[in-house]
Amino acid sequence: MKVLKRNQLIILVISLVLVTAGYLSFTSKYNEDLQTSAGIIARADSDETIGNAELVNSKPVTEGDASGVSTEEPSNETEAVNAEEPADYYFENSKLERDKMYSQMIENYTNMYENTSIPTEQKAIAANEITKINNLKNAIMISENLILTKGFENVVIFVNDQQISVVVKAEELLPEQIAQIQNIISREMKAEIGNIHISNK
Question: In the chain, which end has fewer C-beta atoms inside a 10 angstrom radius, N or C?
């Protein structure tokens, strides 16, 4: 009877060892499969991401066009925008050149004013010119902003001595619009109506 129990105990222990070994083997194999699957999924995700990145600009680059910019004909909307660029460029570039000229003049007068070898009388003239230019720039800025409030898309003002030229972006100018511009310029820039020249572009 004791021999039977002992044999049963040995069989039970062996069975437990085999079950444990099988479980460990299965777990190890499962982990390997899981890691392999995760690697495949990660690679797939990576490939998909790369594919999506390539599709951001999927149009082929034509020869001589290394930038990848599309060479397709522009749409009507794009053509309309491009058609407006020359006029807008004129206004913005004219203002830029005008402001550069005034800045250069102020710099020259400032250098004259700060020069110790310049007589006091000339320094006074330089200081007066700096004040006049700054006042003129302010008057131009105010006038342009007020003209824009009258419904014009863009405007630029040029001053040559007593003559003031105003160019507005408009297909045509109505008499009442011309009168509004004249009133603004004469009031803000202390100009005579006869010296104000208005044109459209």
Answer: N
Q: What is the pLDDT of residues 52-107, one digit of tens each?
A: 333 333 333 444 444 444 444 444 544 444 445 566 899 999 999 999 999 999 99
The backbone torsions φ and ψ at residue 119, rounded to the nearest 5 degrees and listed phi first, read -60, 155
Class of domain 84-200 (CATH, top level): mainly alpha
- Cβ atoms of 143 and 129 closer than 8 Å: no
CB of 128 closer than 8 Å to CB of 136: no
Residue 156 identity: V
pTM of the full structure: 0.57
In 3D space, the residue among 131, 132, 139, 130 whose CA is nearest the CA of residue 106 turns out to be 130
Alpha carbon 113 to chain centroid distance?
39
